[in-house]
User: Fold this.
Amino acid sequence: MTRSLSLIYSTFGSEEEARDVAKILLQEKLIACANHFPPIVSQYEYQGEFHEDREFPVLFKTSGKLAKPAGDRLLALHGFETPAILHWKAEASNPGYENDCRGN
Assistant:
């Protein structure tokens, strides 16, 4: 177990934005894969007000060495003023998949 893979989770305000950002990160070789999930309902307080919005979650997969650059680029591309961009290292992975991700 080398823990060389990282996962990045974020949500977007539209499916189009989620796909556009994922495509850029893929083209720039900052991620190996983006998994798009069905829309979710997010409830949160922002600037003292309650909000309930439909959001589009994406799980980005990348190598450990590219996690920070990928997250930084994601932040620069993201349409939300304060987006949730959460990183964590994969505890284990299929060795073949890990090799593929390290090459991104």
